[in-house]
Design a protein that fits this description.
By secondary structure, this protein is mainly alpha-helical. It has 4 helices and no strands.
Length: 59
């Protein structure tokens, strides 16, 4: 995954934690739409591995 996509996903997580869900979705969607088919599995894994980044909770 390109660093710019990972950075956008991290920004989306921060926006989500700050109750800015619409901005988070816009940011994440733009990054995901720029990703190649080869990057999609890595993005899916990153999102799975970083769930708590979005929730701010350690369940």
């Amino acid at each position: 995954m390109r660093p710019s996509i990972e950075s956008a996903l991290k920004q989306a997580a921060e926006l989500t934690r700050n109750n800015r869900l619409v901005d988070a979705m816009t940011t994440a969607e733009a990054a995901i739409n720029q990703a190649t088919a080869d990057e999609h599995p890595e993005i899916q894994q990153w999102l799975t591995d970083h769930t708590t980044d979005f929730t701010g909770r350690e369940d």
